[in-house]
Amino acid sequence: MAMDEVYSATTAPNPKSSWFVVPTEHLDKTRFILKIFQVLLSSVAFFLEEAVSRCYNCTPLYFFEFVSCTAFLFTLLLLILLSTPLHQKATITCWPTVDFCYTGVIALLLFISSIVFASNNGHSSLETSAVVFGFLAMLAFIADFALFWKNQGHPFSNGGKAPTTPGGAVQVEAPAEKEKLTTEANGAD
Fold first, then answer.
1. Dihedral of CA 153/157/158/159: which sign?
2. What is the rounded distance in angstroms from the CA atom of residue 178 to the CA atom of residue 41?
3. What's the CA gap between 148 and 157, in Å, rounded?
4. Which residues contact 134 (CB under 8 A, 6 or more apart)?
5. Is 46 within 8 Å of 68 (Cβ atoms)?
6. What distance in Å separates the CA atoms of residue 33 and residue 62, rounded to the nearest whole number?
7. What pTM was computed for the model?
8. Is the previous residue joined to 166 through a cis bond, with omega within 30 degrees of 0?
9. DSSP label at 55?
10. What's the mean per-residue pLDDT of the chain?
11. Highest mean pLDDT: which range of 129-143, 147-161, 170-184
12. Count helices and strands in the chain by DSSP H and E runs
């Protein structure tokens, strides 16, 4: 009897195990689409900024470049992690908190960098376009942040849910059940 025969007769493929899974427990379809827009808009802002050949004052340009590139690359990474089983392999256990904080911070940084770059540039069409896409990306991040807050609440509070352990939710026995068991045990004596 070969090894293959032993395992092939008892194992079956899992239809739910696929590489790309949306919705997941951390990302619904609407927020997935918003994250795709965030990646696209921040990448366009970054590439337009990279096409600027001369700058009037380079510090705002470099700050905008840093923020738009960070938004593009880290949002792409977060999107890949949350929409695939890869997030289960990472040692991070607080994905909602990471997603919530990251989205809020990037929205704020895009707001600041877009305002700074808009107020201090050479007013070329590329710079103006980059600023517009920076503000559009910021709006996508704000929409994602607001949708997260509306649907899931603040991730730092437990929200009245039962505390969880690595094995699952902690089971709390109802007082009426406990009283019934105590009464039955006393009556049987």
1. negative
2. 57
3. 14
4. 42, 45, 64, 67, 68, 110, 113, 114, 117
5. yes
6. 29
7. 0.72
8. no
9. -
10. 81
11. 129-143
12. 7, 2
Q: How confident is the model at residue 168 (pLDDT cuts 50, 70, 90)?
A: very low
33/85 Cα distance (integer angstroms):
18
Q: Write out pLDDT tens, residues 55-82.
A: 878 999 999 999 999 999 999 999 998 8
| Count of all residues that appear for the chain in the document | 189
Residue in this structure with the two tokens 């406990």, named with its chain if needed = 178
Please answer whether residues 137 and 41 qualify as being in contact, where contact means their C-beta atoms are separated by less than 8 angstroms. Answer: yes
Q: Tokens 């902690």 appear where?
A: 170
Question: What is the b/e burial string over 44-71, where b = at least 16 CB atoms within 10 angstroms of the residue's CB?
Answer: bbbebbeebeebeeeebbebbbebbbbb
Q: Where are the domains of the chain?
A: 26-156
For residue 83, the Cα-to-chain-centroid distance in whole angstroms is: 9
d(CA 134, CA 128): 10
Amino acid in the structure at residue 165 = T
Contact criterion met (CB below 8 Å) for 96 and 26: yes
